[in-house]
Automatic annotation (TrEMBL):
Keyword Transcription regulation: yes
Gene that encodes the chain: oxyR
Organism: Brevibacterium mcbrellneri ATCC 49030
Protein name, entry field: Probable hydrogen peroxide-inducible genes activator
Classification via InterPro entries: LysR_HTH_N, LysR_subst-bd, WH-like_DNA-bd_sf, WH_DNA-bd_sf
Family per similarity comment: Belongs to the LysR transcriptional regulatory family.
Highest taxon above the source species: Bacteria
PROSITE patterns per UniProt: HTH_LYSR
Keyword Transcription among record annotations: yes
Taxonomic path: Bacteria, Bacillati, Actinomycetota, Actinomycetes, Micrococcales
Domain HTH lysR-type: 1-58
Recorded GO CC terms: protein-DNA complex
Molecular function GO terms recorded: DNA binding; DNA-binding transcription factor activity
Keywords: Activator, DNA-binding, Transcription, Transcription regulation
Length: 302
């Protein structure tokens, strides 16, 4: 029993014709028929019902071909893994990113990645930070982009950039009419709209509240940054918005007014993390550099 026999059986199941199956496998029909007969003999049971020009798989044959497909797929994956290990800049890597950054970073990053690493396919998964860290630990992701420190053994981290927060309020609010930059201390007494539990942006905003003696508006908690944006426009209150989330190609909202903070502005530090033993560890510094440069005119590089 060998892999090639499985490929012959799969082809026969697809074409239901010995000649066409043989042609697809680039062998002669007698060769394919002989090998499949040997496979039947080895398993000790018929896999194929032969009746003139018509053929179909037996019940056992159907079960065997289903498993044969999985074996062939797994072998292809093993070959792909080995190939990517020898050339980590080809193939596919799985990168996780948190929801309040992912939709706003990708429009900048993906064109730059395709240009700088054309043979590398990047599959992006969006989840909250704790879920991303768990998926990285389980090997379900190759790297994660996070806005909070990842401190644990076996994980390598590269800083990417520092993203400032902007103060956001509704256009009809007289408090938003001045062009002057704010001081963090100006937030004292403010009740800010924040995201719900589990978002790292909530934790970062709460830290700003603690520093500035602001507080959280307890009546509302948004489930997403877009919901938070609409709540502000509706006049429900003020909030902090990450700079990438309000920078083109994000469409400006005329009902939303943004004010910058004077230095040192409240911010979040974004970083790339991966398992130290990853087969892609050599390509991650280049990936990090591409991510940094793609937003270099918006954020502060680290």
């Amino acid at each position: 029993m060998n892999l090639r026999d499985f490929e012959y059986l799969i082809a026969l199941d697809e074409f239901r014709h010995f000649g066409q199956a043989a042609q697809s496998c680039e062998v002669s029909q007698p060769t394919l028929s002989t090998q499949l007969k040997k496979l039947e003999d080895e398993l000790g049971t018929p896999l194929i019902e032969r009746s003139g020009r018509n053929m179909q798989l037996t019940r056992v044959g159907q079960e065997v071909v289903a498993r044969a497909r999985k074996v062939v797929e797994q072998v292809a994956e093993m070959r792909s893994i080995a190939r990517h290990a020898s050339d980590p800049r080809s193939g596919e890597i799985r990168v996780g990113c948190f929801p309040t950054l992912n939709p706003y970073l990708l429009p900048h990053a993906m064109p730059a990645l395709k240009k700088s690493l054309p043979s590398l396919s990047v599959l992006v998964v969006e989840e909250k930070t704790q879920t991303l860290e768990d998926m990285l630990d389980r090997g379900e992701l190759d790297a994660i982009i996070v806005g909070t420190p990842v401190v644990r053994s076996g994980i390598d981290v590269l800083p990417l950039f520092r993203e400032d927060f902007l103060f956001a309020g509704p256009a009809h609010d007289p408090e938003m009419s001045s062009d002057d930059k704010l001081l963090v201390s100006d937030l004292e007494g403010e009740e800010l709209l924040l995201l719900s539990e589990g978002h790292c942006l909530r934790d970062q905003a709460l830290q700003v509240c603690k520093t500035s003696k602001a507080s959280e508006q307890v009546n509302y908690r948004a489930t997403s940054l877009e919901t938070l944006r609409h709540m502000v426009v509706s006049g429900a209150g003020h909030t902090l918005m990450p700079k990438l989330a309000v920078t083109p190609p994000v469409t400006p909202n005329p009902g939303l007014v943004l004010k910058e903070f004077a230095d040192p502005a409240p911010h979040r530090d974004v970083m790339l993390a991966w398992r130290s033993g990853s087969v892609y560890r050599e390509v991650f510094p280049q990936l990090a550099e591409v991510l940094r440069n793609s937003v270099a005119d918006i954020v502060t590089l680290l």
